[in-house]
Write a structure and sequence with these properties.
Layout (H helix, E strand, L loop, with lengths): L1 E2 H8 L2 E5 L5 H8 L4 E2 L1 E2 L9 E4 L16 E4 L1 H4 L4 E5 L3 H11 L15 E2 L4 E2 L4 E2 L4 E2 L4 E2 L4 E2 L4 E2 L4 E2 L4 E2 L4 E2 L4 E2 L4 E2 L4 E4 L4 E4 L2 E4 L6 E3 L4 E2 L4 E3 L6 E3 L4 E2 L4 E2 L4 E2 L4 E2 L4 E2 L4 E2 L4 E2 L4 E2 L4 E2 L3 E3 L4 E2 L7 E3 L8 H35 L1
Parallel strand pairs: 4-5, 5-6, 6-7, 8-11, 9-12, 10-13, 11-14, 12-15, 13-16, 14-17, 15-18, 16-19, 17-20, 19-24, 20-25, 23-26, 24-27, 25-28, 26-29, 27-30, 28-31, 29-32, 30-33, 31-34, 32-35, 33-36, 34-37, 36-38
Antiparallel strand pairs: 1-3, 2-7, 21-22
């Protein structure tokens, strides 16, 4: 357990107590840093030993009834309200930092399981954890503090940076390089073949994918995400890139630092995505495009052209009632005919003006 004072210091918040004089003992305990919490929870479920957080005014209704020991929120939201607060300008960031303090994710013991198969040429760093049924082929280099979960496979000459974690069932193909502090979730595949085939009179001839995948530090990939190796050059991913579950990155894609991509998104081969971009779920980006830095793409958008200006881009349509959707579909089918009629009216008006002159 941690005191509220310790939590406030850790997350960079200001501990503020606003009571109505009814609970001086609680206030005194706070002054002494003795009020302690053991976890974090939703505001309407939190107990007296837990923290909670509010990021928007729509949750204010829960403030008066919440039993949480303290609320992480912004000064504006907490203004003129009684309670115990951890105040900061970005309360969602405070929530993230607090959640790290109470993270219950189990850690693998520092040992090499007897059922793992590790080639004698593999270089293992200090304090490495390797779970059951792991297979590591020749030439691999595993950094200090790396954890490799059950059933993972590392192909030849793979490099895993220090303090990275591979959850169970991760597959990394030959020659892939992964930076420090990376996290790969279960089912993630790095370095599989890109989609490369030549057509010979109706028969598909496979093009061997001769490149690899090079990934920077603090990378995270969600469950069942796949990153293809390059056809000739490498697929390249920068530092602090975050990929959700079920993301597909095709061969020779380049992704800049601090870009985040949500689930079910696919990026076709050869596309370059800049730094600090955010790409929502189920976005489709066709191949050989360039997206500049600070591009933000909303859900279900189809990107067919390069983007050279930072900003927010959308193409996905919003849901309608089935009746309204049918009506809209009919109107869309009538657009060509309507366009032709408008052009004819413009032409007739032009002729009338010419006749008057």
């Amino acid at each position: 357990m941690l005191s509220l004072a310790e939590v406030a210091k850790s997350i960079g918040a200001e501990l503020v107590v606003r009571l109505n004089g009814e609970q001086p003992s609680t206030e005194q305990a706070l002054d002494n840093g003795t009020v302690r919490v053991d976890s974090i929870a939703d505001i309407h479920l939190a107990t007296a030993s837990q923290l909670s957080f509010i990021t928007g005014a729509e949750y204010l209704q829960y403030l008066d009834t919440s039993e949480a020991a303290a609320i992480i929120t912004s000064p504006n939201i907490a203004a003129d309200r009684s309670g115990i607060f951890l105040l900061m300008d970005n309360p969602y960031l405070g929530y993230a930092r607090a959640a790290q303090l109470f993270d219950t994710t189990p850690k693998l013991p520092i040992l090499i399981h007897e059922t793992s198969v590790i080639d004698e040429t593999v270089k293992l760093g200090d304090a490495v954890s390797i779970g059951p049924q792991v297979s590591i082929e020749s030439g691999c280099v595993i950094g200090d503090g790396v954890s490799i979960g059950a059933g993972c496979h590392l192909g030849k000459n793979v490099k895993i940076g220090a303090h990275s974690r591979l959850w169970s069932g991760v597959n990394i193909y030959h020659n892939v390089q992964l930076g420090d502090h990376a996290i790969l979730h279960s089912g993630c595949t790095i370095g599989s073949d890109g989609f490369g085939f030549a057509n010979d009179a109706g028969q598909w001839v496979k093009i061997p994918q001769l490149g690899s995948v090079v990934i920077g530090d603090y990378f995270e990939a969600g469950a069942n995400t796949s990153i293809d190796r390059g056809a000739l050059n490498n697929t390249q991913i920068g530092n602090c890139v975050k990929l959700d579950n079920l993301v597909h990155i095709a061969h020779n894609v380049e992704i800049g630092d601090r870009t985040a991509i949500a689930g079910m998104t696919g990026v076709a081969g050869g596309t370059k995505i800049g730094k600090a971009c955010t790409i929502a779920g189920r976005v489709s980006i066709i191949g050989h495009l360039e997206l500049c830095d600070n591009v933000h793409i909303t859900v279900a958008t189809l990107i067919t052209k390069s983007i050279t200006e930072p900003g927010v881009y959308s193409s996905g349509d919003v849901a309608l009632s089935n009746k309204d959707w049918k009506r809209k579909t009919v109107r869309l089918k009538q657009l060509d005919a309507l366009f032709g009629k408008v052009k004819q009216v413009e032409k007739d008006l032009k002729n009338i003006k010419q006749d008057k002159n």
